[in-house]
Amino acid sequence: MSSYVGVVVSDPWLHSQFTQVELRTLKSKFNSNKTLLERFTSYADTSDQEVDFETFLRAYLSVQARGVEKSGGSKASSSSSFLKTSTTTVHHAINESEKASYVSHVNSYLRDDPFLKSYLPIHPATNAFFDLVKDGVLLCKLINLAVPGTIDERAINTKKILNPWERNENLTLGLNSAKAIGCTVVNIGTQDIAEGRPYLVLGLISQIIKIQMLADLNFKKTPSLFQLVDDTQDAEELMGLAPEKVTNFSSDVKDGEAYAYLLNALAPEHSSHVALETKDPTERAKKVLEQAEKMDCKRYLSPKDIVDGSANLNLAFVAQIFQHSSKSTSFSEMMTDDVETSREERCFRLWINSLGTATYVNNVFEDLRNGWVLLEVLDKVSPGSVNWKHANKPPIKMPFKKVENCNEVIKIGEELHFSLVNVAGNDIVQGNKKLLLAFLWQLMRYTMLQLLKNLRSHSQGKEITDADILYWANRKVKRVGRTSQAESFRDKNLSSGIFFLELLTAVEPRVVNWSLVTSGETEEDKKLNATYIISVARKLGCSIFLLPEDIIEVNQKMMLILAASIMYWSLQQQLDTDSNVSEDATDEGDANTVTGEISNLSLDEASESSLVQDQELLTKADEDKDEVDGDGDGENNNDA
């Protein structure tokens, strides 16, 4: 698998200034403009000086530095809290208190893990934590700690010494699984973690721990939260709020008084008025932590962290207090649970957040009602489709402004050929779950089909269809001598998981350990195979958000997305291989020839005649399309 090789920069200092994601983006831009750069150097009579990628990077840093100087350093203030920019170099400042807290968390929760216990405890004053993260095992274990069952641990490579391919598999599995539980990993690549870049590692680990600490802060696990509201309408609004919906976890808690009152109310048997009577904030913080320890709250922050107003650590502290004080009440009977709707909401929520939109979605049914997030998503998947001059930015108080946004969403959906019969913007504003989920499904499907379309020849004017994906998957499995075939994405035989495991083997022979695969005949065997499929697909590099139940129950929509994701990964590997070849083309004519070959990328193996094979697949797929879509509602049914 070629993806484990990052962009190599020979100058260590220069390499340290960029993440792998940034390097890949800049490398792509450099290659696409290489001819223009060569013409420029020729015009400037400096043809004896080669314009290489590292020269390009240095020029890029220089331009960025001048931009920061002119803006008065504003760029630094708008970036991550871990990132600080100077005029010549990018410096990444590490919060040692947060690092120590995360190390303590790992030592506490994973000390009995069969694989990690020989490496724990880690001393927070050293860099052992960043070294331990490099092989991806700790990352995967933390994700399973935050959301149990996310990763099938049979898919984790846990040998004492891992080769680069195995290490990259773990890191790819970890990053894709992090996305699947709600982490934002837009600017983080596997190579960045493999290099143990502290600011990126801490940024990712903090998100995972936050998800773990806030896991019980929902109405299913803690129905007593309904005591915070007086009527059903308020309860619906509360369900849409982010878990940490307070003014802030910094300045408001720095003096420790709020903690003292809270702990006195929650655990009066451990309370004393000493904390409130103490005038010194640091001493008061010490008393607060002592009282919290009596409630069995683990001590991950220091009095100084409270006084300094460390937002991440204070949020984790409050979450711990909540976990040790919440009690189940009769309000649990108020919770209705539509399992299928809940699963779909989860899938679309995680998918939207993975796109890197500015607005983080906590609840699809509440957060999308004003139309703004949907416009952000549409602009991501179809750049330029949104006229932002006509959009109303939150907070939106007037209902008709929300309707205007949602009407624009419907209009763009129709332009993208979504099936939106009798659907109006007001349906979204009113929170019609069925119509909203149907719209999101078409949006997700459109995104995946566009990705596939952009990776293959469309000189014949052909669009990628569900039937094309099904035919590609069946052909791929058959070509490696496997016998499984899928009649449609509703084929009940898919519930065993064998077909998808054979498809994964077909695109990458090393990725499936067949000694771990069951026959898929019993429900238990199906569950084992389904969890393994999801982890193996993520390990390969597929960004997917389905659950094992979607495979076991043969959820048609999720089966299509799973197959399409595997197909996209397979074609992307061929494209990357051909791109490496194209770098050897020195003149413009050769480069155009290679580009032409890439644009005619086959749906099957690149070693065959891609144009002929592609036409053969499309012709056959068109012939089979009526048969594939013939039973039931059809694979291409987009009706809302």
From TrEMBL:
Identify the SMART domains for this entry.
Answer: CH
Q: What is its main location?
A: cytoplasm
Start and end of every Calponin-homology (CH) domain?
Answer: 96-213, 225-326, 342-448, 463-571
Q: Which UniProt keywords apply?
A: Actin-binding, Cytoplasm, Cytoskeleton, Repeat
Which GO molecular function terms does the record list?
actin filament binding
| PANTHER family, alphabetized | CALPONIN-HOMOLOGY (CH) DOMAIN-CONTAINING PROTEIN, FIMBRIN/PLASTIN
Q: What is this protein called?
A: BnaCnng38580D protein
Source organism of this protein record = Brassica napus (Rape)
Q: What is the lineage of its organism?
A: Eukaryota, Viridiplantae, Streptophyta, Embryophyta, Tracheophyta
State which gene encodes it.
BnaCnng38580D
